[in-house]
Amino acid sequence: QLACPLDLGCHSVQLWAGAPAKFLRDLSAEEQESIGRLAEQNYELARSHAQETNKSFEQVEHEGIVLDIKNERSPDYVSRIGYEF
Q1: Residues 49, 30: contact at Cβ < 8 Å?
Q2: Chain-centre distance of CA 21, in angstroms?
Q3: Neighbouring residues of 19: CB distance < 8 A, sequence distance ≥ 6
């Protein structure tokens, strides 16, 4: 949790938390390097979540049926009945 009142002049390599914010410690070099990676991972997770939550009920139901068929039947069986995924 990075939080800093503007008048304290905290730096981006420090960890501040609480309300009111208090300095906890300086970030390690490893933590500083991981900030960009974590931001990318959070962005991808949010994008994936948005795609899933924008699906209609019918889409979710269809995907569930397809998944059930894939899990219960062999690919040979599915290809013989002519169902395409």
Answers
A1: no
A2: 27
A3: 3
Q: State the 10-residue block means of pLDDT for the chain, 85 residues long.
A: 54 86 92 90 96 93 84 70 61
Please give the Cα distance from 76 to 71 (Å, whole number): 13
Q: Give the helix/strand (H/E) hosting 16.
A: strand 14-17
Q: Within 13 Å and on the Cβ side, how many CA atoms surround 37?
A: 5
Q: What is the distance between the alpha carbons of residues 57 and 68, in angstroms, rounded to a whole number?
A: 17
Half-sphere exposure of 12 (CA within 13 A, CB side): 4
- Tracing tokens 């699906």 back to the chain, one arrives at 55
CA–chain centroid gap for 50, Å, is 10
